């Protein structure tokens, strides 16, 4: 069985690579409180279709490079973007 995670794209600066932030809940037994921690994974994006803010599902695969062992399986929810009508800039 392959490991699947759902997270948000936080960086798409490298070609065919995105950085995905995956949240995880852990229990701190000392204070009996649940905490939210994050881990960043580099994922292979073959078609370079992901943008910052997309919610994606990543799937474990064979190592693509030294740091990449996950690939984008699907875009669960695209990022909310809007275009400024005066300047034409795209805002996330």
From TrEMBL:
One GO MF term attached to the UniProt entry: structural constituent of ribosome
GO biological process terms, semicolon-separated: translation
Keyword Protein biosynthesis included in the entry's annotation: no
CDD domains in the record: Ribosomal_uS17 (cd00364)
GO terms under cellular component: mitochondrion; ribonucleoprotein complex; ribosome
Swiss-Prot/TrEMBL keywords: Ribonucleoprotein, Ribosomal protein
Superkingdom of origin organism: Eukaryota
Gene3D superfamilies with a match to the protein in the record: Nucleic acid-binding proteins
Family affiliation: Belongs to the universal ribosomal protein uS17 family.
Protein name: 30S ribosomal protein S17
Organism: Linderina pennispora
């Amino acid at each position: 069985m392959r490991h699947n995670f759902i997270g948000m794209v936080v960086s798409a600066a490298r070609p065919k690579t995105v950085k995905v932030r995956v949240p995880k809940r852990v229990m701190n037994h000392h204070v009996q409180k649940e905490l939210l921690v994050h881990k960043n994974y580099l994922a292979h994006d073959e078609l370079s279709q992901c943008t910052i803010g997309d919610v994606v599902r990543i799937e474990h695969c064979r190592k693509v490079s030294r740091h990449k062992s996950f690939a984008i399986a699907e875009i669960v929810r695209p990022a909310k973007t809007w275009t400024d009508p005066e300047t034409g800039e795209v805002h996330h």
